[in-house]
Design a protein that fits this description.
CATH superfamily of the largest domain: Vaccinia Virus protein VP39
Helix content: 40-55%
Strand order of the largest sheet: 3-2-1-4-5-7-6
Structural class: alpha/beta
Radius of gyration: 19 Å
Number of strands: 7
Mean pLDDT: 95
Shape: globular
CATH class of the largest domain: Alpha Beta
Number of domains: 2
Amino acid sequence: MSGTYIDATTGTGGHSQYILEHTDAKLICFDADPDAFQIAKERLGKYIERVRFYNKNFVHIPEIIEENVDGVLFDLGLSSYLVNQSERGFSYRLNGPLDMRYGKTGRTAEDTIKFLDKYALSKILFDYGGVRYSKRIANVIKEKLPKTTSELAYIVRRSTGKQGKKAVMKVFQALRIYVNNEYEILKETLNNMLDIVKKSGRIVVISYHSGEGKIIMKFFRENRERLNLLTKKVVKPTETEIRENRRSRSANLRAFEVI
């Protein structure tokens, strides 16, 4: 495989490294997180003649990339690197500040909780996380105003009883999506790819929950005249892949050809 491709969610460079090792392709790497991105630059250093790096959210691709490319890959999962950095505030298992930002600008999750009223917070929890008892949870969050991940997780567990663990996961997901404006950015960027990816080029998206899946399929339905769906059924990880990386178990891959 040759040509020029975009890794829109480079993270620490896992996908990019695999592509560069197994093909002759050139890559354009984007990621919003500066820490993970520095790791990727070091990891991919020996391929520097075939790689360009941009420490930017993928929404900025149209502003930066002037040429047409042969394909683009989006892996919408939260990277293990970010989850394992307690100071970034993404994990309910590790105590840290309620940050949740991919970059270093904008409101943190703690700021968001303070800024929103309980009705808006409840709607975010329900719309972005499918959180049951979202009104009850939002009321308690606004009353307690947690400052750390552990405080937030404790509040949610106490508010939901037996459903506590699942509710905590969904609350963290909802806040992360809102803080980083993930859904709107994904919608905008997918549409922009139609003018960046060449005809017969590929758009590949790996998603992890139903909200992302709905956005991806709406993008396809609204652009049927410009896209072929290459994956009639979503591609899921094998049992071996799940054993090697348990976080991949909810991954769904969809691929499109630009026509």
